[in-house]
Amino acid sequence: MDAQGGGAVRGTCEAKERRFSELGDEVHALFEPQGEGGEPRFCQVCHSERDVREVDGIRKCALCRSLEKLGEEASRAEWLVLEEVEPPSEVKPLGYEDVLSAFGLRVGLVRKLSQFKPSGGNFVRALRLRDADFLGEGVNPGWAYGFDFQARAVPTHDGHIKDFSEIAEEGRGIKRLGVLRMDVDNLGRLFREGLGARASMSRLSTMSRSLSIFFKGYISSICEDFPGAYLTYSGGDDLFLVCPWDRAPELGLRIREEFGRFVCDNPNVTISAGIAMVPGKYPLYRAARLAGEALEEAKDVRRERDGAVVEKDAISFLGQAMGWEVFGEMREVKLNIMGLLDIGVPRGLLTRLWEIYELYRRAEMTAVEDLLSGEMAFREYVKAIHYSKWQWRLVYTLIRVGKSEHKDSLRKLQEVLLREGMVRLLGPAVRWAEFETREAR
Ligand SMILES: [Zn+2]
């Protein structure tokens, strides 16, 4: 570096030092431990030092403890009561109640309305959270009543919300969390073009309200059929939930079916899903990003259907994105394999099937090369893939594996796999079955 350049760098350093020196002793105070000092007494969740106490072996500050309590209360509440109060002249924010009181709001999350004791505020509003019947528990004069569905599904154990590690343990086979994100395809286009010339403010708002009823109200009730499902967010046109991994694809499929019914099977209103699988202790925000990437992959799916190009309406699971119709077929292959294992066919079946899939993949790659080099016509290419070594290996394997009482079920799997295009789904189906039957660890 030349002398001038060095001088410039030195100049910057000096300027920086000066800037800090202007702060005087304050700059040192920034880096010193706050509070009582001595042993580190900061919150293990947010690193605050305000009123830290140990709960179940974890140090938590007052705000974190209170947010945890809020989560527990919200998961059980039947009513949300909002009371307008005079904001106190000075607020020491310790818990969420203190923060809200600074905004002139007192909040009650209660199972029965009688559990909320008003503090003499100006205005009380009571919203029923899981039922539209908001007058059922009697009426207090001067209160306003209403309902507001809350998207909610929270797995509990002995009255406590299960943590993600516990949820991961509930999965079949491999112990992982399934993180599922779904959203409506082409929503912008739907709003812009869906109503055509009949579009009006009231129609658009009806459309958006209907979607909201599905995502805020209906999703929660679907989740009830899937124990361990933790609905992190659902509203507008999308949702984000965490559950034992093996339930994620089933839950996604069910939501897709119910959504189809909700929009009267309109082929222009579809929904896509992305699933990520992570260990129970994995940071949630990163898991959310992975599931978001999977969802993006699903949105990139394009295929031809009845001569037209169809985009999206897809799912990405186990790193493979495919249309829901293909996913249904892949699931059928997997269910057939699982059925065989359930009736006692040795787990070695999975290895045999994987070898068949590899044979198919190799045949496909060779054929693609021949096709690209012009040595093979397209019709022959299709034949070369479909009628190659893997076929007789499949038949041969499925005859030899298992006992005589398994023959019918084995023949059924064979029939499914010999249907055109099905063998390419064998790989992902075997992986799925392998995860689901893996020894717990
Ligand atoms: Zn904290």
Write up this protein.
- The structure is a single chain.
- The chain folds into 4 domains: 15-60, no CATH class; 64-147, no CATH class; 156-317, Reverse transcriptase/Diguanylate cyclase domain (Alpha-Beta Plaits, 2-Layer Sandwich); 328-437.
- The strands form 5 sheets. The chain has a 6-stranded mixed sheet. Strands 4-3-5-6 form a 4-stranded mixed sheet. Strands 1-2 form a two-stranded antiparallel ribbon.
- A hairpin with a 2-residue loop joins strand 1 (53-55) and strand 2 (58-60).
- The protein is 46% helix and 18% strand.
- Helix 10 (324-342) crosses helix 15 (426-437) and helix 11 (348-372) runs antiparallel to helix 13.
- It has helices at residues 3-22, 26-31, 62-76, 96-102, 164-169, 187-193, 201-223, 247-262, 284-299, 324-342, 348-372, 378-386, 389-400, 407-418, 426-437; strands at residues 53-55, 58-60, 79-84, 105-110, 123-128, 143-147, 156-157, 160-161, 177-184, 230-235, 238-244, 271-278, 302-305, 308-311, 314-317, 320-323.
- The chain is built from 15 helices and 16 strands.
- The longest helix is centred in the C-terminal third of the chain and has 25 residues, at 348-372.
- The chain is elongated and about 85 Å long.
- It has 441 residues and is an alpha+beta fold.
- Zinc ion binds next to helix 3.
Topology:
Elements: H1 3-22, H2 26-31, E1 53-55, E2 58-60, H3 62-76, E3 79-84, H4 96-102, E4 105-110, E5 123-128, E6 143-147, E7 156-157, E8 160-161, H5 164-169, E9 177-184, H6 187-193, H7 201-223, E10 230-235, E11 238-244, H8 247-262, E12 271-278, H9 284-299, E13 302-305, E14 308-311, E15 314-317, E16 320-323, H10 324-342, H11 348-372, H12 378-386, H13 389-400, H14 407-418, H15 426-437
Parallel strand pairs: 5-6, 12-15
Antiparallel strand pairs: 1-2, 3-4, 3-5, 7-8, 9-11, 9-12, 10-11, 13-14, 15-16
Helix pairs in contact: 7-8, 10-14, 10-15, 11-12, 11-13, 11-15, 13-14
The structure holds zinc ion.
Zinc ion (ZN) binds near residues 45, 61 and 63.
